[in-house]
Design brief:
Blueprint: H1 4-11, E1 17-22, H2 23-27, H3 31-43, E2 46-51, E3 57-61, E4 64-71, H4 80-89, E5 96-101, H5 105-117, E6 126-130, H6 133-152, H7 155-177, H8 185-194, H9 198-203, H10 206-212, H11 217-226, H12 230-233
Length: 239
């Protein structure tokens, strides 16, 4: 359960709303859990409606709709349906989250393996692994509430501006790193994903680069020398 002070903040944020629960999903759950959901929503200023919808939940909160798949029983032997369902629904909803209960290491390992096996795009949709039912639904309410607050405060537009600046920063990074002799754009991408910033790359040894990337030994040596030997780092020019 959300602690009392957090419930109070939700109530007084001005961002309550409506929660629509799938009638099909409701019929598959134990009545005690459905009662828990109803009480939890009421405590957090959400009105519950049970309707035939494609996702398991849709929250209308602060002028934004957020859809959720709530996977209660993840089957290690048959993980495909959850990923195919997520792939189908992500094209129908701008904000879709998949909350998956994974109480055991076996289930968690199976989920991670299957996530990449089925070629999911990171963040499209966002998967949220949790340990139990109550934690899962608390996450759902918190995400819906946060989305509503963001909409109310126009934070989304600020995030878009930040994303554009990030893309511009990435372009500068790629231009700098790919100016190193023999280093190509895909090598630069590998470096930022595994080693990090230009400062981190400048400090990285040849051995460290080889350990964390698939870059060749020759290129790793060139990168390491580039940031340490003036005849290298004063030579290349960024076009």
């Amino acid at each position: 359960m959300i602690p009392a002070q957090n419930v109070y903040s939700v109530r007084n944020s001005g961002v309550g709303g409506v929660c629509m629960m799938s009638s099909k999903w409701r019929d598959e759950q134990h009545p005690s859990f459905v009662n828990f959901i109803s009480s939890f929503l009421s405590a957090n200023s959400f009105r519950l409606n049970i309707v035939p919808i494609a996702p398991d939940f849709i929250f209308n909160c602060g002028g934004v709709s957020v859809a959720f798949i709530f996977m209660i029983n993840y089957d290690c032997n048959n993980p495909g349906p959850i990923f195919s369902r997520a792939e189908k629904l992500k094209s129908q909803f701008g904000h879709l989250y998949v909350v998956v209960i994974l109480p055991t290491k076996e289930q968690n390992d199976s989920f991670v393996h299957s996530y990449f096996r089925y070629g999911m795009d990171i963040g499209r949709p966002t998967f949220v692994p949790v340990l139990d039912l109550e934690m899962g639904f608390e996450k759902i309410v918190r995400i819906a509430h946060a989305r509503g607050v963001c909409k109310r405060q126009d934070v989304v537009s600020k995030l878009k501006a930040e994303r554009e600046r990030s893309v511009q920063g990435m372009d500068v990074f790629l231009r700098v790193v790919s100016s190193i002799p023999h280093v190509e754009t895909h090598d630069a991408n590998a470096l930022i994903q595994t080693v990090g910033s230009i400062e981190a790359i400048a400090k990285a040894s040849k051995e460290n680069i080889l350990e964390h990337t698939d870059i060749s030994s020759e290129k790793a040596d060139m990168i390491s020398r580039f940031f340490r030997d003036p005849k290298f780092y004063l030579g290349p020019k960024i076009s």
